[in-house]
Structure formats: C-alpha cells, structure tokens
Amino acid sequence: MNKTKILIVTAFLVLSAFDMVAADKLYKKNTIDLSFSNVLLEQDGRTYNNLLYGLNLDYSRNLNKFCTVGGFIGSGVYREYEYIVEGNTRSYTTYGAYGNSFGYGLTGKLHVLPIIIKKEISWIDLYTKGVVGMIAMNSSTDKIIIPAKGNFFDYSIMGGSAIYLSKGFGLFAEAGYRSFEYHHGLTARYGLTFRF
Asked: 129-138: per-residue pLDDT in tens?
C-alpha cells in the first residue's frame, strides 16, 4: 500500500473540515448520492474475471462553497473462486457461491467550479473526491477462497461531475484510482444525486 497516497487522501479530508460556520449560509448544503459500481478483482497482481458489484449510499454536507465532507455505507456481491495449488500449478476455479461485502468510511470533495468561475452555476458541479474507509469481504471459509474473508483498508481518489435536471435532483459520474486488498487501479461510479 502506498503511504504517500494514503497521506494525501487523509490530508484532503482533514483540510476539508475547516470553515464549518460558513456552511450555514449556503443554499442546498446537503447531498445524498445513490451509486452503482463494478470493480475487477485481482489476486497477486493478476485479474481472474471476477467483478465486485457495489451499491453505495453517500451523505455529504457543504462546509463552504469549495469543500464538502461526509460519509458512506455500501454493500456488494461477487462470485467466489477456489484457489487450487497442485505441484507448481496454480489455478482459480469457480466455487459456485457468491460472497458479499460491506463498506463504510469518510468522503471529502473539493468543488472546482467556484474556484474557476465566480458566478454561481447551479445546474452542474465538477469536483475532486477523496475516500477512506474499510471494506469487509464475507467469503466462505471451508476452502481456500479468493477473495478471502477479511476486513481491508480501502481508499480512492476520483474526479466527478454532477448534472442537475432540477433544483434538487441530478445524475453523476466519478472515475479515478481505488486501492484495497483485491483491487489497485481504475474505478468508476455513477448514479443519482439529491441535494437539499
């Protein structure tokens, strides 16, 4: 795990916590996002055609017009693979079962448009986002299963955009880098956003 990336994400979240009083003056300072993602799982740096399908619920609050902090919970499902070692040969075989995951953590956003454009634009939002949390993989334990059961540190750094179709409802998409025990690389999320 790259300690520099973890330090950057943590610093981003801490810096986002300043200037909380200014949030009371903001209109539509709360946001709820419902998102879907699918992440290609890997073992020992090799992918084995297994996807973690996830559904997340995020809540965030504007601290000022530039920064947002919040938290998330999420769950996912994935196919379990049996890890087989015979002599010098290693292989993955579909186990026939599905495991599930549960994740939680903190988020922080830096909104880009207010930095670039002084005039308020309410129908679009561009931002960078840092996420730190934990993911629990709930796999079977009767054989050597990949991904293995356990709790793992999970973080990501992403860029995102939301387009609001009305004052309180919109669509969003995010893409960037995500890292936990069974994935290190590109990640994407998309879904519905509500602000109030």
From this structure: 999 999 999 9
